[in-house]
Design brief:
- This protein is mainly α and 148 residues long.
- The chain has a single domain, classed as Four Helix Bundle (Hemerythrin (Met), subunit A), CATH 1.20.120.
- The chain contains seven helices and no strands.
- The termini are far apart.
Length: 148
């Protein structure tokens, strides 16, 4: 667990600096896609446990809770000017409706913090209770800002 915490701290410190130094738009796109892939994997782990598709494992839930809390804060630095083209499913509305996009970001981060707290509680019931209200965070943003 100490290693995960150290990695999380290093990523949290390094991410803002890295986000400022993308050499090419493709680097920013790769960064945000990678962060979202990690988020989705651990979000899926928690969802599988909450919905009974996987056995509940309190230790794994806590680890995934840590990851979703951190990973939910990372991708946004990669949505910079010039990253609307290339290997991306980002819709133009990300840049034309920035206030709305920011609301979705903030809601996702807040929801993932709540889900993380429940995941780290050691209680399947708390995980289930947090899962329902927070499970739509990704879909809401994708519906508005991601091409299928």
């Amino acid at each position: 667990m100490r290693t995960l915490a150290s990695l999380a701290l290093a990523l949290a410190i390094a991410a803002p600096a890295a986000a400022q130094n993308f050499q090419k738009p493709e680097d920013a796109i790769k960064y945000r896609r990678s962060a979202l892939t990690v988020l989705a994997a651990h979000f899926g782990t928690l969802g599988a446990m909450a919905n009974g598709r996987a056995p509940y494992d309190a230790a794994q839930a806590a680890k995934s809770g840590d990851v979703v809390a951190l990973a939910s804060t990372l991708p946004w630095a990669g949505f910079i000017a010039g990253t609307d083209k290339g290997e991306t499913r980002a819709k133009p509305e990300i840049w034309t409706e920035q206030a709305k996009f920011k609301e979705h970001q903030d809601r996702l981060v807040d929801n993932m913090q709540k889900l993380s707290a429940a995941a780290k509680s050691g209680s399947l019931d708390q995980l289930k209770a947090a899962w329902g209200p927070n499970s739509g965070s990704c879909k809401a943003c994708h519906d508005n800002f991601r091409k299928d």
